[in-house]
Design goal:
By secondary structure, the chain is an all-alpha fold. It folds into two domains: 106 residues, no CATH class; 65 residues, no CATH class. The radius of gyration is 21 Å and the shape is globular. The N terminus is likely disordered.
Length: 204
């Protein structure tokens, strides 16, 4: 019950609290993205003539923007985005550990307990290690700390650019998605620091 209460408190802060809630950040993301898209397209027409986004690129930019508009709150233990990040990051991390453990231990374990049981054991251990690692790392994050910085926003944008270039998206389209993510994150910082604009551009 306490966890449910905390989550509800985060989604809808009590009257008098200044911290924007999840609904506020997502609403800002939805209504400011068309403005961002129009502005970016206008500027790109002057400096980046090759930029001619498809509906898919615009949608990917929107997703990056919306995720960015709430991403800084991964440092809050009651924020839905932290639980979502944990759920999404554990499986790929567990896969990495599973591949590593299988390389060194599957053969010897299979000889003693059978291949099928060995694989189940390796998967279970990998999942447990991943859960502990992700949970520990998130616990070290201080609310409104590094993830609420312009550096983190730039890292998010940079990661998006690299990921979309890896799937061979043209540079101008990958850049658009990256800047969409960065701007969405920046919108979150502006909403959180509307009374203290100097904090918007803090480095860490």
């Amino acid at each position: 019950m306490k966890m449910v209460g905390n989550a509800h408190h985060f989604l809808r802060p009590e009257r008098g609290e200044s911290m924007p809630n999840l609904k506020t950040h997502l609403t800002l993301g939805v209504f400011t993205y068309p403005v961002f898209l129009s502005s970016y397209t206008l500027i790109a027409s002057k400096f980046q003539p090759a930029f001619d986004p498809t509906l898919g690129v615009i949608t990917a930019g929107y997703l990056a923007y919306i995720v960015g508009s709430d991403l800084p709150d991964i440092d809050h233990k009651d924020a839905p985005v932290q639980h979502q990040l944990k759920a999404l990051s554990i499986p790929p991390l567990a896969l990495v550990f599973q591949i590593w453990l299988a390389k060194y231990f599957e053969q010897s374990l299979s000889a003693s307990i059978g291949q099928r049981v060995a694989r189940i054991a390796i998967f279970t251990v990998s999942l447990f290690i991943s859960y502990l690692l992700v949970s520990t790392l998130l616990r070290f994050l201080k609310h409104r700390g590094f993830t609420h910085s312009i550096t983190f926003a730039a890292m998010y944008g940079g990661l998006l650019y690299m990921l979309f270039r890896l799937v061979r998206l043209p540079p101008e389209n990958a850049m658009y998605i990256a800047i969409s993510g960065f701007t969405g994150d920046l919108i979150h910082l502006i909403a959180d620091n509307s009374r203290s604009f100097s904090k918007i551009f803090k480095l860490w």
